[in-house]
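sry for the spam today, last one i promise. struct tokens for design, 430 residues
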């Protein structure tokens, strides 16, 4: 569906304790057998289950909380849609989300979000970095922070994947001072990363010889001029080779046809299925998007269509994570740059509204089957459990076991992982 809008803005390593515990469970044979012990299925599954993973679904443009997570039926601001009960008594969501209503027992709705930022670009920035945008500094986005803190150093796959709805691909620039190693690998429209096939006419033997020569020359150069920049270049080359060897991991066509049918044969359904495939293969962070919710015009007609796509695929995704025992180690966040106004404008649309809206979460240390925070009867302000972008960023990290009060050491400087003037949401995590 194409719509014209009034708004034209621009837009670890494994824990030592876990490692030692796993080795102890393996017994003395682990030492005798060397690192091959990790190929034992039971132990390999145990180690994999301990790795934390994160998925962010970005509802670009500003999802209406009133047509999704926090409906206000029967009021002057509520719009035409009803609220329906969910699998959790007392929690109702929009009738546009019937499939999601059946997996509410897995979700945690944070209904008291107030970020006080109604600009698309600034709102996106603060929701993905946990800080307000300023000319004085640039901060890494959530995906880069997760790649740095959650992805094992020896991982053969990148720790930060961005599935974009359009074409293209390549590397992103979201990592700021963390460096290019933690920037995203972008998968245009969910296709495998570009340039991950050998050039026509080049054999595997020729490629191995070529890379061996590159490493020899590179090592001689690094012996004289090793720096953070040259290390980053070296890492990029080696990661590219691993991507080529693991290319099938990024090929969602390898998933069963029945799963494609369940998730829906449209872009968002395919991207959700791809996200599941990436998580199961050990990728630490995946971000995908559904857009464009900037509904200044025809808000209700647009949400009927968009929510139907989102609802089916999202519910399948959450159910699969739960059924496969992955929710304990996987954090899922559905966010946007802001919500939509309770007031309905003369174009049957809703405008930008950041003072009372909702973020949906699941997994990690978040409680299940909970609606945290509350807005008033018309949805115009938060009346309980108010939080902002900084509180959310701290809480996301804490939900996957990262101490958000710690700092990164970058070129001898201590840079806080999250905004030191903020903190996590009190009393929310289990």
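last one done:
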């Amino acid at each position: 569906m194409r719509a014209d809008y009034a708004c034209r803005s621009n837009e670890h390593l494994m824990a030592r304790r876990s490692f030692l515990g796993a080795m102890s469970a393996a017994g003395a044979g682990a030492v005798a057998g060397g690192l091959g012990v990790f190929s034992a299925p039971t132990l390999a599954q145990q180690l994999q289950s301990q790795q934390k993973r994160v998925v962010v679904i970005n509802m670009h443009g500003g999802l209406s909380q009133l047509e999704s997570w926090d409906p206000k039926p029967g009021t002057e601001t509520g719009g035409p849609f009803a609220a329906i009960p969910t699998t959790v008594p007392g929690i109702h969501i929009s009738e546009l989300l019937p499939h999601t209503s059946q997996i509410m027992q897995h979700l945690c709705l944070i209904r008291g979000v107030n970020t006080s930022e109604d600009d698309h670009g600034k709102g996106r920035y603060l929701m993905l970095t946990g800080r307000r945008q300023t000319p004085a500094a640039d901060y890494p986005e959530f995906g880069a922070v997760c790649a740095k803190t959650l992805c094992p150093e020896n991982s053969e796959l990148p720790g930060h994947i961005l599935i974009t709805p359009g074409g293209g691909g390549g590397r992103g620039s979201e990592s700021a001072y963390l460096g290019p190693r933690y920037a995203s690998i972008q998968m245009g429209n969910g296709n495998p990363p570009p340039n991950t096939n050998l050039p026509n006419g080049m054999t595997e033997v020729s490629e191995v010889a070529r890379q061996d020569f590159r490493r020899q020359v590179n090592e001689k150069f690094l012996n004289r001029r090793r720096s953070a920049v040259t290390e980053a270049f070296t890492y990029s080359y080696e990661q590219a080779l691993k991507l080529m060897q693991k290319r099938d991991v990024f090929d969602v066509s390898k998933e069963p046809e029945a799963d494609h049918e369940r998730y829906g044969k449209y872009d968002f359904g395919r991207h959700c299925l791809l996200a599941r495939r990436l998580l199961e293969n050990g990728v630490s962070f995946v971000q995908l998007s559904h857009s464009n919710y900037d509904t200044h015009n025809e808000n209700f007609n647009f949400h009927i269509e968009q929510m139907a796509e989102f609802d089916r695929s999202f519910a399948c995704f959450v159910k699969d994570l739960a059924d496969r025992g992955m929710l304990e180690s996987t954090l899922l966040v559905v966010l946007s740059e802001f919500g939509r106004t309770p007031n309905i404008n003369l174009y049957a649309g809703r405008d930008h509204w950041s003072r009372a809206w909702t973020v949906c979460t699941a997994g990690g240390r978040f409680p299940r089957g909970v609606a945290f925070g509350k807005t008033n009867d018309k949805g115009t302000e938060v009346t309980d459990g108010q939080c902002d972008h900084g509180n959310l960023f701290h809480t996301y990290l804490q939900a996957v076991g990262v101490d958000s009060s710690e700092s990164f050491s970058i070129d001898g400087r201590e840079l806080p992982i999250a905004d030191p003037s903020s903190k996590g949401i009190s009393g929310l995590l289990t």
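Residues 239 and 272 are 24 Å apart (CA to CA). ok im logging off now
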